[in-house]
């Protein structure tokens, strides 16, 4: 195979995020993001962005915009399939989305989120599901929710050569146990969170998401870890920041979580386009002669 693989042995090339290739022109071949690049960004104190993506066009745009890591989140449950929680989404539903995203990217590292029930049963199940996302989804890494209790699962997966991203703090797959969308790690629970992060690192995780964690706790954990932390509602001192793209771009309407900043009004743009199309069809203004064949 001549195609370089993500997460393989490091090249002597300039690290991702430095030099002119950091913002490669659309269509430029660019360099694939590797896990060691993310570690180097942490060492240099350069925060990096991560976004969810669930399809080809968004993946292509985010890749070209220089987002080094794309997550095919189990949040597709809410943001693609319309479930009210992330619990019902299945491997069978997520796999085709992962395939679409990995086909579209040139540089970004694509992380497949393991859905509820597809890894918790045993390290063997976690590895088997990860292998499906790597082989059938062509993902570059997987992500799973949970702390120290999932260290054996992370070890089984990384032991097979598959990079794993952890996820601690508010873990949506456990929302019924956590009592809803609530900040995690306040007070004494902060020490447990640190222990969880260290256990994931020791098990071989290459990064760890911290969701809805007090900023001071996230800062402390980020300082204690060698691997990058990726915050969502975890303050400014994480090594990276992630948002769900429909929140970031204003496609999802209604009240967004407090940790969201909206960078666009995609809902407004799409809604105006659909309304204009509908009006023109109803008025007989579309199609015009140039849209028709003689
Ligand atoms: N569109 C979307 N964005 C997300 O961030 C997201 C998903 N979907 N689906 C899966 C999980 C669920 N997540 C969520 C969902 C809601 C809140 C929320 O409503 N938070 C409130 C209450 C916080 C509190 O009471 O402490 C907030 O104002 O932040 C937070 C995280 C994060 N993930
Ligand atoms: C919010 C991110 C971290 C996530 O797990 C998802 O989108 O599923
Ligand atoms: Mg998720």
UniProtKB/TrEMBL annotation:
The record ties this protein, via SUPFAM superfamilies, to:
Phosphoenolpyruvate/pyruvate domain
Q: How is the cofactor bound?
A: Binds 1 Mg(2+) ion per subunit.
Gene symbol of the encoding locus? panB
- Return the annotated region ranges for Disordered: 1-30
Residues of the signal sequence?
none
Q: Which residues bind 3-methyl-2-oxobutanoate?
A: 74-75, 113, 143
HAMAP family xrefs = PanB
Annotated GO molecular function terms are: 3-methyl-2-oxobutanoate hydroxymethyltransferase activity; magnesium ion binding; methyltransferase activity
Q: Where in the cell is it found?
A: Cytoplasm
How does this protein assemble? Homodecamer; pentamer of dimers.
Q: Which biological process terms from the Gene Ontology are attached to this UniProt entry?
A: methylation; pantothenate biosynthetic process
Q: Is Transferase among this UniProt entry's keywords?
A: yes
Q: What positions constitute the catalytic site? A: 211 (proton acceptor)
- Identify the Gene3D superfamilies for this entry: Phosphoenolpyruvate-binding domains
Q: What does this protein do?
A: Catalyzes the reversible reaction in which hydroxymethyl group from 5,10-methylenetetrahydrofolate is transferred onto alpha-ketoisovalerate to form ketopantoate.
What species is this protein from?
A: Amycolatopsis arida
Pathway(s) this gene product operates in, as recorded in its UniProt entry: Cofactor biosynthesis; (R)-pantothenate biosynthesis; (R)-pantoate from 3-methyl-2-oxobutanoate: step 1/2
Q: Where is the composition biased (Low complexity)?
A: 11-30
Q: What name is this protein filed under?
A: 3-methyl-2-oxobutanoate hydroxymethyltransferase
The record's InterPro entries line, in alphabetical order, gives: Pantoate_hydroxy_MeTrfase, Pyrv/PenolPyrv_kinase-like_dom, Pyrv_kinase-like_dom_sf
Which residues take part in binding Mg(2+)?
74, 113, 145
Its main localization is: cytoplasm
Q: Which reaction does it catalyse?
A: (6R)-5,10-methylene-5,6,7,8-tetrahydrofolate + 3-methyl-2-oxobutanoate + H2O = 2-dehydropantoate + (6S)-5,6,7,8-tetrahydrofolate
Q: Spell out the Pfam families in the cross-references.
A: Pantoate_transf (PF02548)
């Amino acid at each position: 195979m001549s195609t370089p693989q993500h997460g393989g042995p490091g090249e002597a090339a300039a690290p991702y995020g430095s030099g002119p290739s950091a913002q490669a022109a659309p269509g430029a071949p660019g360099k694939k993001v590797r896990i060691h690049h993310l570690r180097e960004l942490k060492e240099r104190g350069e925060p990096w962005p991560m976004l969810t993506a669930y399809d080809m066009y968004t993946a292509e745009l985010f890749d070209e915009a220089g987002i080094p890591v794309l997550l095919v989140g189990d949040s597709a449950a809410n943001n693609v399939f319309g479930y009210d929680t992330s619990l019902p989404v299945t491997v069978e539903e997520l796999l085709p989305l992962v395939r679409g995203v990995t086909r579209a990217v040139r540089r970004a590292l694509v992380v497949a989120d393991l859905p509820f029930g597809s890894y918790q049963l045993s390290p063997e199940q976690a590895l088997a599901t990860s292998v499906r996302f790597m082989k059938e989804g062509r993902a570059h890494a997987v992500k799973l929710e949970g702390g120290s209790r999932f260290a054996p699962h992370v070890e089984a997966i990384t032991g097979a050569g598959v990079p794993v991203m952890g996820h601690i703090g508010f873990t949506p797959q456990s929302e019924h146990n956590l009592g809803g969308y609530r900040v995690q790690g306040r007070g004494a629970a902060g020490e447990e969170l640190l222990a969880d992060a260290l256990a994931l690192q020791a098990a071989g995780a290459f990064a760890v998401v911290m969701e809805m964690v007090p900023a001071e706790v996230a800062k402390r954990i980020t300082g204690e870890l060698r691997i990058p932390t990726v915050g969502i509602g975890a303050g400014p001192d994480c090594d990276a920041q992630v948002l769900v793209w429909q929140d970031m771009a204003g496609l999802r309407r209604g009240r967004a979580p407090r940790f969201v900043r909206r960078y666009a009004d995609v809902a407004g743009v799409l809604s105006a386009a659909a309304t204009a199309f509908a009006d023109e069809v109803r008025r007989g203004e579309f199609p015009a002669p140039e849209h028709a064949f003689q």
